[in-house]
Design brief:
Blueprint lengths: L2 E3 L13 H6 L3 E3 L5 H8 L4 E4 L6 H6 L5 E4 L9 H6 L4 E2 L6 H17 L1 H9 L23 E5 L3 H12 L3 E4 L14 H7 L2 E4 L13 H6 L5 E4 L8 H9 L5 E4 L12 H5 L4 E3 L8 H19 L9 H6 L1
Parallel strand pairs: 1-2, 1-3, 3-4, 4-5, 6-7, 6-8, 8-9, 9-10, 10-11
Helix pairs in contact: 5-7
Family: Belongs to the D-isomer specific 2-hydroxyacid dehydrogenase family.
Protein name: 2-hydroxyacid dehydrogenase
Keywords: NAD, Oxidoreductase
């Protein structure tokens, strides 16, 4: 096979078009998923391999004797041994910007759920609470407006910019956080100041050594007791034990997260086992609109086609790999 997709099931539920991929290179072998022990045999004869989350290590790269290109079906690329790829002179590329609209919509869905208690009111109606109410409008849960609230954005790339634009349309005041511990540049506010002043805080930064547990006990203590924390980026940005403690003690009003450190989680995962009422959890689906997933596949096809035509193709450079 000239091209192999190792975990195609992670990006499709049978609703994606592969026309662009097939036009870029063929034939393909699409595997629903691949275990660590299956990787080497499945890519041994491939020229192009695609992986979303399956790890591509040194033995796999060295053992793929016809390999020309490694494509990551995501923006993050920590599932590829970049040093091994460099050593074997195999370029690695990723996909970028494909999920912006989907993630932004999910951020505001979570924010609106926190502000208006949609999930709680939906559950109230299902259990007969509205029907049993003495009034036309049961006021069991507090309802707030986004208008006039302050949104703190930590991470101001394409996603952070897009979230800021929508927030302003809602009538929110936007604060852009400077990097932690750095003096603020024009148009940005100090990291701690954003934590202290925001009614909602949303995370949009990559996970790295510098951002691991970016939000822990000290940061949560700086937030308002009425504030909400939202994370659709990477689970490791938040110290989950500290978050659970903060929520259970009423240190912050609530949180909504689409990502956790262990994905998929085990049945005894701490976040899911102890999930308090003021925590909303969705299963890493912020990115996963049908339109977003199709853009991902089409961008993969563009990368492959451009690579073989010696055009730019979202290559991950060695410098980028060192600063990730």
């Amino acid at each position: 096979m000239r091209a192999v997709f190792l975990d195609f099931g992670s990006v499709t539920r049978g609703d994606m078009s592969c026309v662009a991929l097939e036009q870029a290179i063929s034939p393909w072998q699409y595997y629903h998923d691949s275990s660590e022990s299956e990787v080497l045999e499945r890519i041994r004869e491939a020229e192009v391999i695609v992986s979303n989350k399956v790890f591509i290590d040194h033995p796999a790269i060295a053992g793929a004797k016809h390999l020309k290109l490694i494509c990551v079906a995501a923006t993050g690329y920590n599932n590829v041994d970049l040093a091994a790829a460099d050593e074997c002179n195999i370029p690695v590329c990723n996909v970028r910007g494909y999920a912006t609209s989907s993630v932004v919509q999910h951020v505001f869905m979570l924010m609106l759920n926190l502000a208006r208690h949609f999930v709680d009111y939906h559950a109230l109606v299902k259990r007969g609470g509205w029907q049993a109410s003495r009034f036309f409008c049961p006021l069991d849960f507090d309802i707030q407006e986004l208008s006039g609230k302050t949104l703190g954005i930590i991470g101001y790339g394409d996603l952070g910019h897009a979230v800021a634009n929508v927030a302003q349309a809602f009538g929110m005041q936007v604060l852009i956080a400077e990097h932690k511990g750095k003096p603020p540049r024009p148009g940005r506010a100090a990291f701690d100041e954003v934590l202290q002043q925001s009614d909602f805080i949303t995370l949009h930064c990559p996970l790295s050594r510098e951002t691991q547990h970016l939000i822990s006990g000290m940061e949560l203590e700086l937030m308002k007791p009425s504030a909400y924390l939202i994370n659709t980026s990477r689970g490791g940005l938040i110290n989950e034990t500290d978050l659970l403690q903060s929520l259970s003690q009423g240190q912050i009003a609530g949180a909504a997260i689409d990502v956790i450190q262990e994905e998929p989680p085990s049945m005894d995962n701490l976040i899911l086992r102890q999930r308090p009422d003021n925590l909303i959890v969705t299963p890493h689906v912020a990115w996963a609109s049908r339109e977003s997933r199709q853009r991902l596949l089409d961008q993969l096809a563009d990368n492959i086609e451009n690579f073989f035509q010696h055009k730019p193709f979202n290559q991950i450079t060695s410098a980028a790999s060192k600063t990730k």
